[in-house]
Design brief:
Length: 293
């Protein structure tokens, strides 16, 4: 049943994205097309099992957000952030947040999550006015959790002055279905430098040194091995251009052992001592294509 429904969503997704020409017009007429996308999304939700993220996306395709992005062949997830509620408490569309704290020497201290990714004031937030025609009206700003952790009590994370605070903002495919094996998963997005390590920030003026880092990533985790990371493809976004540019990273899913594991893709930051860490992201696409021999 799972397999059958998954195939349904894959075809349904293609059908939805196939309507891109309609969507690009931004006309009311495209709304009607998107309605059938919503129906397909319900099937997708069941097919993807735990991944409400994927099903949710297709289901909400009725809003035209994902369908409107222009139709990427093999796309299983698309988000331009334009139709998400900028006044809501969460990013929505099943974006998740996981937090980690590391000791000053980089050793792991503790982690927590996953939880729904908040729409500010910490961790990440929908933004507007940070892009051009290809990114407006809304983008995603990812930064640190400056309330982490235990202010006035345990004084950890930023409040320790030396510990490292990691934020991970991601979509999850859980479990990885059999159909993904033999495919290459590609994560593409656009990004613009935010306030990360901004030299004009008082936090970054001598003698203080700002050392925040940021990245995009694809990971797989094995739930049957204590959620051990079985693959990790990072793309450093610490020093990206202040102009919007496109980026891409990919992971070969050939290993049959990946079936049933968890695939995550998204953005991360590591910061300490309240140092600035923000970047802007937009036009996220996760797509499968047959792995080249
Ligand atoms: Ca956008
Ligand atoms: Ca520092």
């Amino acid at each position: 049943m799972k397999k059958t429904t998954l195939i349904t969503i894959l075809f349904a997704a293609l059908a939805v994205y196939g309507c891109a020409d309609d969507e690009e017009g931004g006309t009311a007429g495209s709304g009607g097309t998107a309605g059938s996308g919503g129906t397909a999304g319900l099937g997708g939700s069941a097919g993807m099992g735990g991944s409400a993220g994927m099903g949710g996306s297709a289901g909400e395709g009725g809003m035209g957000g994902s369908a409107g992005m222009g139709g990427t062949p093999g796309a299983i997830y698309e988000q331009d952030f334009n139709a998400l509620d900028i006044n809501g408490g969460f990013i929505g569309d099943d974006w998740l947040y996981f937090g980690n704290v590391y000791n000053a020497d980089g050793s792991f201290k503790f982690g927590f999550g996953p939880n729904p990714a908040p729409n500010g004031p910490q961790i990440c937030a929908l933004a507007t006015g940070e892009g051009g025609a290809g990114q407006e009206p809304q983008q995603l700003n990812v930064y640190s959790n400056y309330e982490c952790c235990g202010p006035g009590t345990t004084d950890e994370g930023h409040f320790s002055g030396t510990e490292l605070v990691e934020t991970l903002i991601f979509q999850e495919i859980n479990p990885i279905p059999a159909e993904f094996i033999g495919q290459t998963f590609t994560f593409t997005f656009e990004a613009k430098l935010g306030n990360i390590n901004d030299p004009s920030d008082p936090k970054c003026t001598a003698p203080n040194v700002c050392e925040s880092t940021a990245a995009a990533f694809i990971k797989t985790l094995d739930p049957n091995a204590g959620f051990a990371t079985t693959n990790e493809v990072p793309l450093d976004t610490t020093n990206i251009s202040p102009a919007w540019m496109g980026y891409s990273l990919s992971l070969d899913l050939t290993d049959p052992a990946l079936e049933g594991q968890i695939l995550q893709f998204g953005f991360s930051t590591i910061a300490q001592d309240f140092e600035p860490s923000g970047n802007f992201y937009d036009n996220v696409v996760g797509a499968n294509s047959p792995t080249a021999p």
